[in-house]
Design a protein that fits this description.
Two copies of one chain form a homodimer. By secondary structure, chain A is α/β, with parallel strands linked by helices. Helices cover 39% and strands 19% of the residues of chain A. At the A-B interface, helix 3, helix 4 and helix 5 of A face helix 3, helix 4 and helix 5 of B.
């Protein structure tokens, strides 16, 4: 049984490989809901949906989010009613939001909603929202605090991030099954996602960080930073503006004490000794997931390392 | 100032003519909301939207409802989540429902929602929902009671209608402006809509029937039945199953006491004496609204009759 802390694009690529390397029935995804957003009165869960679409082989490969071949008739029309177009939700993607919103309004808890969506997409893995309670990642910049999707999509990350806050986190409880999935796993993976806005919201749900600190599972993090750059998203930029070194080593420092094995790209092999000095083992391999073969091989490399007892 | 009691398709055609014959700024539509329906968790107002789309010259001319050239990506996708496809809402039509639902959930009263929609579509007439309170037209048949859209769309009117009930009508108040629009008008028109499920719900809102009975306006009804048949919809079939004569005379009997002038098609000219015996004047003209020219002429014929003092 494998459990994966997951954000959006990077996590979905890692999961595509893992679900080919092992039986997906043994994979549990803990999904970040901190970047959920209400758009047009509909509840949109970008990270959860990216993971579902990717595992269903329906993701738009050009963007890394949204559905392949989707159309945009609804958002086109909504502009007529004064909505801004910055959140470009496709029609079929929007159907997902409509369905989710209806179920939530009828009182179904988020984990049951997601369970139904995962099944509707024909997946056999488990996807657990980090919490059924609303948590909203807020980005503080020079102009004040904004919601994550505004920062990410509307302002295209062109903000000097000064701090990050998870609104509602104090009252959030881990989603049903989350703590168990961490405690009972053979291995827990921290996907190559943004440490601050994808992984940290999950860790910040009261009880989750302790569960990860105390599990008997082998804990493996894959660096989202390769050669000082991020494959997708603002992680490197955020590290700099928040005072971290924008490197795999900087990421390793963030996860210190929570991770047994840190996976570095071959381009960062010279960082391995410094990472090991933090008390982690390292696995140096090709982490650029440019093909499904390479995704599967990366998962295989990691699983071999775990099985070899390092 | 002209006020029109309006259902869907027939009313929208009549209104297209009226709004060409007179300045639309002087036209107030009282719209039936009894056939509003929640689909996919969204609030859909079929009659109101048909009127808006028709007046904006955006209606699908083949169906008489929905938007010309609309696509169906969202409802296609929703089937994946187990929804039935009987309510075939187009993508751009659905944008209207998404916007309306958001505003209603935020607490905006229906008449303000509709005012904004009318403006967004560039219309200068006024459209007033009959009530801001929820009223739902329920159809009782041999198999029990069902909501109107189920009868109309899912079962394609293949039900022997035994009775009709307007759920919530006792607690409904006329929408803001409705009573005034009836009392202050120069003429009030009952559009060629279904008397039972389009016009009666409006009349049944407490206070509306009295307002129509007591107004100084000239009250004109246009028969939706021509030569014993209805142009669109189940009105003739309903008349029979509810024990009325399925003819223009049968419709005139329903409106007895509420109408000063009854407009009959030339094909029904032999019914004029019987209608006049009910205490109404008659106008016999071509009421088949097969072209925009004929729609405008019909409105012109009626206005001339009113101005001539009958």
């Amino acid at each position: 049984m494998y459990t994966v802390f997951a954000g959006g694009v990077g996590a979905s690529r890692f999961l595509q490989g893992l679900c080919q390397a092992v039986d997906p029935e043994g994979v549990t995804v803990i999904s970040n809901t901190g970047d959920d957003v209400e758009m047009f009165g509909l509840h949109v869960s970008p990270d959860t949906d990216i993971v579902i679409y990717a595992l269903a082989d329906a993701i738009n490969p050009e963007t890394g989010w949204g559905l392949r071949g989707d159309t945009f008739a609804v958002v086109d029309q909504l502009q007529k009613f004064g909505y801004e177009r910055w959140f470009n939700l496709g029609d079929r993607d929007l159907a997902m939001a409509i369905h989710r919103t209806r179920l939530l309004r009828e009182g179904m808890p988020m984990h049951e909603v997601v369970r139904g969506l995962v099944k509707a997409w024909g997946l056999t893995c488990t996807v657990l929202p980090m919490s059924n309670d609303p948590v909203r990642t807020m980005i503080a910049g020079p102009g004040g605090e904004i919601a994550f999707q505004e920062y990410m999509v509307r302002l295209r990350t062109e903000v000097d991030v000064r701090s990050i806050r998870f609104d509602g986190i104090e009252r959030a409880k881990p989603g049903p099954g989350v703590v168990e999935a961490i405690g009972d796993a053979e291995a827990v993976f921290i996907a190559p996602s943004n440490p601050f806005v994808s992984i940290e919201p999950i860790l910040a749900v009261p009880g989750v960080r302790d569960a990860l600190a105390n599990t008997q599972a082998t804990r493996v993090a894959v660096s989202p930073i390769i050669a000082g750059q991020v494959v997708k998203g603002p992680a490197a930029k955020m590290m700099t503006s928040l005072g971290y070194e924008p490197s795999a080593l900087g990421v390793a420092r963030i996860y210190r004490g929570l991770v047994d094995v840190f996976v570095l790209d071959v381009q960062d092999r010279e960082l391995a000794p410094a990472v090991e000095a933090l008390g982690m083992k390292t696995l140096v391999t090709d982490t650029m997931m440019t093909s499904i073969e390479r995704k599967r091989e990366l998962a295989g490399d990691i699983l071999s390392t775990i099985r070899a007892g390092l």
